[in-house]
Amino acid sequence: xxxxxxxxxxxxxxxxxxxxxxxxxxxxxxxxxxxxxxxxxxxxxxxxxxxxxxxxxxxxxxxxxxxxxxxxxxxxxxxxxxxxxxxxxxxxxxxxxxxxxxxxxxxxxxxxxxxxxxxxxxxxxxxxxxxxxxxxxxxxxxxxxxxxxxxxxxxxxxxxxxxxxxxxxxxxxxxxxxxxxxxxxxxxxxxxxxxxxxxxxxxxxxxxxxxxxxxxxxxxxxxxxxxxxxxxxxxxxxxxxxxxxxxxxxxxxxxxxxxxxxxxxxxxxxxxxxxxxxxxxxxxxxxxxxxxxxxxxxxx
Length: 300
What we know:
Layout lengths: L3 H19 L1 E8 L5 H8 L12 E9 L7 E9 L6 H4 L8 E9 L3 H19 L7 E8 L1 H4 L4 H17 L3 E4 L5 H16 L17 E2 L6 H4 L6 H11 L8 H10 L5 H15 L8 H7 L2
Helix pairs in contact: 2-7, 6-9, 10-12
Keywords: Cell projection, Cilium, Cilium biogenesis/degradation, Cytoplasm, Cytoskeleton, Developmental protein, Dynein, Microtubule, Motor protein
Pfam families: Roc
Organism: Loxostege sticticalis
């Protein structure tokens, strides 16, 4: 026969288990480095800490009282990965999953040449870790970070990137949201999404944007191949289409980088900033019809 303390301990354990499953969720953030993951999470969790470089894995949590269930609190467990992507698959199995599980991949939209590798590595790690775990249902959310830089890119580049992200999202039944810590409306939108998955009923479905010239927000289940404008594709076909335009290993030479220094002598700082922005865009393009030096000379 159990003693009163033993009975109390068992009741507490059972209660905590029930709370863990019914009133909690797990959010895992992975993706590009220095793209704004920590800044967004601090904003979501109402932390005023200055974001610092994330270690291999960091944990935080948020709590909110559930009014419909008396004083019970909903707990949102938040994990952020800041290590190398090639070992992510070794780290994910160690993350305890409580309640609904949201796997958030934030890619740097301003670094289009590394975007595919980041996206593929993170999704492959997810598939390898959870594909055979029937007890873990993973919902993928793709965040496009640094939209404030991406919005100034060439229209065709933006269309290609958006097509790639929408195609991948469609294949994995994922949601997409573009984000920038420098644009208040996008911060609000991203926080609303996180609040929805952390303490609400999932990704909000009220706001949608499919136009590649605008910051995308596409809840899962609302897109289609016809809307994207491409035929139904496999992941390998999406990859081939993307890499045919933006190869992973093409970089402008250091000679080109020195060229900009020679022309970085405008009397007005505003012109310098425009040249720098255009140069960064050009560094991310897969080909140029003219040399970088000639292009920069034309800017004078």
